[in-house]
Amino acid sequence: MKKNNTPNEENFIENNVIISVNNLLKKFGDCTAVDNLTFDINKGEVFGLLGPNGAGKTSFLRMVQCISPRTGGDLTVFGLDPDKSHISIKRLLGIVPQENNLDPELSVYENLIQYARFFGIKGRIAEEKAESLLKMIELTDKRNSSIDAISGGMKRRLVLARALVNDPSLLILDEPTTGLDPQARHFIWDHVRKFRDEGNTVLLTTHYLEEAERLCDRLLIIDNGHILAQGKPRDVIENYAGEYVVILDNSEREHEILKANSLPFTPMGSELYHFTRNPQPVMKIFMNEGVTDIISRKATLEDVFLVITGRSLRD
Amino acid sequence: MITFSEISGSLLRTKDVWERNFRVFMKTWKVNFLPPFIEPILYLLALGFGVGSFINAIEGVSYARFIAPGLVAISVMNASFFECTYASFVRMYYQKVFDAIIATPVGIDEVILGEILWGTTKGVLYGCAVSLVLIIAGLLEVNLIFLLIPAILISGFLFAAIGMCFTAISPSIDTLNYPAFLFITPMLLFAGTVFPLSVLPHVALGVAMIMPLTHSVEMMRSLSGIAPGGFFLFSVLFVIFFSSISAIYAIKRMHRRLIV
Q1: Which CATH superfamily is domain A243-298 in?
Q2: Which of B21, B104, B256 to mutate against chain A (most A CBs within 10 Å)?
């Protein structure tokens, strides 16, 4: 994709690092939202930021977006300081916020045109851009609809299109698929991948490990502003949980069987979780003992969290 | 050091914010242009010709003519103030329009200044509409409109900026009712609009003299030559000073509210 933005990202970045985070700190009064984070995000990767609500994901994104000053540490985006070079940085960003903040007083098409204008893109160029984006998100026939009249999935697609109006080099998506149906979800995923394949960088947050697994080249799990785990999605799951989880009733009999076979387990309310790479032998043991109330499924983000927090409690 | 290109870039972005509101306004312009014409007609009928029928003359002019400059000032105040309070609050808080805009190269300062200038514009549109009605009613001379426009403009900026201050500090849309009733309504009645300031007792006069609307009304009176109070220059300076302070304060508080 041709970039007509000046300054171009290439002017600034070194060593392929798009975002550099060093001992980054963000406090709101006494509350620490981001606590001494250090990591880099490289050009051309889809980088996932995972964590529960209140983990510090959105606080971090806001600092990258230059709309929240950091309390301490260093942060550079395209090699620039968000406190000083917010205009240059924001020119190169595409933002998909958690909440759809489309302009409800403008039509679908006008939303794109007006947003382009905020980037200094106007006239013929803006119109052509808006047309091609409408085509991309398959909303050409809804161009004159009001925002209230289109579905949730359509709104999300329009927010994505709006984020691409300035041909950004870095796309930031804050929980892009929460509450979407499978079709809309796949649509977003496809376009995120396409964007990355054009040599751009993506930073996204999500609650879904499935999403992170499918989409992210690398991810970071944070909670309370701390890094809990990081790496490639597969590695994170296998290192911190296991590929599969076997779920049993939390009762005496199951406890005994697990202990007898020296299988590690984690109690979780009325259930017992056993993480493993290969669930078949464990399933067999329980089947042989006559336990039929047993489920095996792929490990998820929640499972990883459970294990991580469980471990840190024991430490 | 701030360079010329930085300033012109900032002004362009401010204009883009203004233009967003203008674009929305023009979508329903037929509806939007009705109130400023209807409202002064109602005031004129009730006060000018209703109450006025019991009054021979006030400061040497008919009552309808006496209230004419006040009607212009009130209309500007209402249009600008309410645009930058309730309407801006809805855009900021409910529609998240400000959040969407500051994700682009447009900064919060430019958003707020753009909003204030849009509030100013609405004041100017309403002020001119009212003046037109008053001219047609034979209460103002046609050529006066050119004299009044600069006064309408700075009055609009004044009340837009004041409104934005309240929006910036208001925790919810309901708390905006306080300035609407405790600040706007008293001014509407006591700022030399419907009776001369000279009627007011000493203390009340002192209060009236620090009311922004008093100075807006005085500018309209002096420029139209209808019962001027004789402190025109002071009023101009007051309006310019008060509006600048308000605009700066509004931008500062909005920064604190939205850039956290």
Answers
A1: ACT domain (3.30.70.260)
A2: B104
